[in-house]
Design brief:
Length: 254
Amino acid sequence: MLKVTVSGFVIWPVLAMLSVPVNALEPVPRAKPLETPNKQPFIEGVDLPQRKPNRDRERVETPIAPSAAPMKCNLTGATYSLLPDINGERSGDAGCGVEAPVRLTAIMYKEASVSFKNPVTVSCEFARVLTKWLQIDALPAAEQHFKAGVGVIGTGPGYQCRRRNNLPDGKLSEHALGKAVDISGFRMRDGSSVSVETDWGQETAQGLYLKAIHKSACERFTTVLSPEGDEFHKSHMHLDIGCHGKTCTYLICQ
């Protein structure tokens, strides 16, 4: 390395005193942008990342299998018992069945018990509509037409795994889903009675009573079929809450 001597002093070149790494003189490569796995742009509100599950919440709210806890049914003003779900396959038709069925035995009205002649097995949903109709419409109407109130309500069993009108084929009856009941008559507390088969259409207290409760039933049920409807209902009044039409708003009142 060269050196310069001036008046006895040695002066080293400035470059010689600097220690510069060789690789520092090499060009620095450009930084490459990070690539996303799907190579799709992020749009707020459309492809937001998934939220992480709340582990504590998952532990607390563990779903319970439907068979482990039967659905509850709370009916006001009715005497009933809860039944296990009814599986239609046991009756030979998988389309039949009732979820959360109840066995109705009586309706409470003015602190008195009005019993069903035969216990009625129906869905909780239908039992609620039926109870409301009896308490608000049918039982009060009896007091307006007769001296004594209703003591017993004559009905069919409610649930029956069968087709409409008991035919061998065709659409399932609402009875097969626990959503229907047939009213055949009433027995008053004084021993008198009302029969749908014999009193329907008569200009008597019994006939006028049946006409009145038919009208009120059409305001609460989606289907009401009386003896005027067809030959299959000459002896009773059919009530159900089946779905009619795409929006389930179509009503049948005959």
